Task: inverse folding
């Protein structure tokens, strides 16, 4: 019962509040460059989160936001060179992962969502029938930038407006179809060597003041309607694609024939560049 009550309190504190207002406030507050506010906010963040800044490119930060979105020093994340491997686009804890069944993926054990709802297109979702998926959750203290999982070209991006539910396991157990409710970006790419379609879905969450894509020059995705931009942006494996402004989640979708690497399992840590999925042989 003590555990249940702790989960109730966590859910109350992180979800039963004005989520969008708090997120907008955090976006503003984190950019304050006044030294005292900067130092106190970074110290508080490091106290409550497991933050490792030893691999950061810079050692001094202008603001909390600058620290959140830090770059890494060169060589901090070696990229697996094997062309038969799709690598993790981010540092994360692996959540639900496996094979797409009947057009659905697991949000958490016992709770599924339809890819058609996530992507907004039943035909597009059908392209991942019997394919593989991986849920990659970035905690607040992690490195927040994400990278290309393979040599690829981004063909289009769709911004989906939505809510800002927390994406921690407690919320995933309590909020049905959470990933389909939250704000997200659908990044459709095609692998350069094989032509396979691989989609990344960065999902926003509470305190995530934005999802930024380095190849789409928008300060903030506008409006409340779904909006799609056609792109033709080439990326080398491991090249930076964008960043979150706090912790969140990236869903990786791959078609039939792809399979999770042996080292990938729910609850395990994974870093940018480490093997995530194997391409069809």
Result:
């Amino acid at each position: 019962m003590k555990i249940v009550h702790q989960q109730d309190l966590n859910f109350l504190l992180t979800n039963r509040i004005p989520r969008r207002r708090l997120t907008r406030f955090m976006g503003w507050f984190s950019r304050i460059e006044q030294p005292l506010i900067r130092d106190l906010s970074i110290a508080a963040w490091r106290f409550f989160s497991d933050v490792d800044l030893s691999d950061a490119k810079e050692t001094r930060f202008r603001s909390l936001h600058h620290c959140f979105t830090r770059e890494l020093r060169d060589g901090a994340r070696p990229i697996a060179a094997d062309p038969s491997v799709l690598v993790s686009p981010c540092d994360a804890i692996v959540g639900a992962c496996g094979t797409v069944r009947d057009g659905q993926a697991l949000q958490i054990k016992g709770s599924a969502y339809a890819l058609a709802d996530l992507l907004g297109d039943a035909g597009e979702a059908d392209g991942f029938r019997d394919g593989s998926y991986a849920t990659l959750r970035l905690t607040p203290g992690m490195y927040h930038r994400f990278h290309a999982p393979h040599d690829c070209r981004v063909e289009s991006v769709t911004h989906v407006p939505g809510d800002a539910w927390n994406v921690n396991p407690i919320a995933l157990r309590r909020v049905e179809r959470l990933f389909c409710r939250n704000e997200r970006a659908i990044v459709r790419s095609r692998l350069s060597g094989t032509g396979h379609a691989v989609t990344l879905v960065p999902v926003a969450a509470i305190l995530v003041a934005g999802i930024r894509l380095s190849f789409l020059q928008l300060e903030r995705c506008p409006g409340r309607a779904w909006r799609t931009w056609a792109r033709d942006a080439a990326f080398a494996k491991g090249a930076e694609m964008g960043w979150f402004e706090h912790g969140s989640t990236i869903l990786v979708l791959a078609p039939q024939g792809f399979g999770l690497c042996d080292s990938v399992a729910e609850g395990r840590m994974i870093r940018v560049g480490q093997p995530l999925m194997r391409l069809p042989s």
About this structure: The chain has a mean pLDDT of 88. The first strand starts at residue 85 and ends at 87. Helices lie at 2-15, 19-29, 35-48, 64-68, 115-119, 122-126, 169-174, 178-181. The longest helix spans residues 2-15.
